[in-house]
């Protein structure tokens, strides 16, 4: 297979994920296509011969993914009644069999094996994207960055059309009146727009580093400023409170990238960034902004995050130690709702990836999550404190931080679009520099000719 085709695989698949994977439950056929293509790319990435050894951080990241997939497998293994009846949340199931006079069968950890298998299949786009970058190792950072930027700009433009005309919405169940772009949920559109911002800084710094401040660099700067204005307008039309709150530290970090250039981040600057992030995140949670987590109205609404967080936490506690099974949230949550307040509208997500994951996997995923956060913190520190920093690794660290923070109060990674973006950014942090045809980094003048083309 030609070298250029190898280089195009990652940006093309990322493009498909961002365009077609904007819903966590809807868009079944589009997501099926992404999964089928993803399976083919996973097989290719695993079988293709890489021209250079895989770096240790990339190996560690791939190992974490393997352990994550192993959790799915473990939840599907049948167990004898003497074991599964001792797990939390199984009392009613055992009582049902006894009431029917049926012997207790062998059952897996998951209370819905079909839902868990389906949830496992939703991981395919992220795994494929990660392997294309981290395992195959053939990619151009600028191609990936421009792919994200192009989709974000078009998605913002589509969002403007949606606000003006409801016929532009792609999903039946969506946030009508908000600019959601290629997504079903306004918050996930905000995640994409915010995550794109640091890559604008990375592209400018990469261009300036190759040829100094030239007419071409100044022209690129004008284009990138225009893109930033479009993204900010898209955020305004989107209306996501979380998007507004996360955008402030992301923009600040992107400006710090420009200020630093190739220098390492001073310790005092890192402290200021953390304080600014904490202050910015407190803004959406303030009562005057009318969020549905901390206000008085939120405490009385069955559809607020305040209620879903409490109910999900209670259900998770009762299903310890191994959870109810991936993909079982809807079935479990409805058994904990107040019957007197049940309506036709139902809760399909906990609106917190961490709480929902804790309910579905219990203690199985806790050490994996901690190991990932340790790995991510280590790579983030190296990206900002290295003597020879990589601009795209820094941009990827900002984007992943935005997604991880947003996941506290929403579920962006449950979409194929954001999960693929997140996986790509993690792979860049693990293996930030592109490889040339012979496995060595391209000289500056060759990179400049590629940029010129």
The H/E string reads HHHHHHHHHHHHHHHHHHHH
Mean pLDDT comes to 87
Strand content: under 5%
C-alpha termini separation: 22 Å
Q: What is the chains' assembly state?
A: single chain
Please summarize the sheet with the most strands.
none
Quantity of strands, as a count: 0
Helix content: 55-70%
- Total count of domains: 1
The Rg value, from CA coordinates, equals: 23 Å
Q: Number of helix segments? A: 20
The helix/strand class is mainly alpha
Shape from CA axes?
globular
**Low-pLDDT sequence parts:** 434-453
Would you kindly provide a written description of the structure presented here, covering whatever features stand out?
The chain is mainly alpha-helical. The chain has one domain. 66% of the residues lie in helices and 0% in strands. The protein has 20 helices and no strands. Helix 2 packs parallel to helix 7 and helix 14 packs parallel to helix 16. The longest helix has 26 residues. The two termini are 22 Å apart. The C terminus is likely disordered.
Please render the helix and strand layout as text.
Blueprint lengths: L2 H18 L7 H20 L8 H21 L4 H4 L6 H10 L12 H9 L2 H13 L4 H24 L21 H26 L3 H24 L2 H20 L6 H16 L13 H5 L4 H14 L10 H6 L18 H9 L4 H20 L5 H16 L9 H15 L13 H9 L1
Helix pairs in contact: 1-2, 1-7, 1-8, 1-19, 2-7, 3-6, 3-7, 3-17, 7-19, 8-9, 8-10, 9-10, 9-11, 9-18, 11-12, 11-18, 14-16, 17-18, 18-19
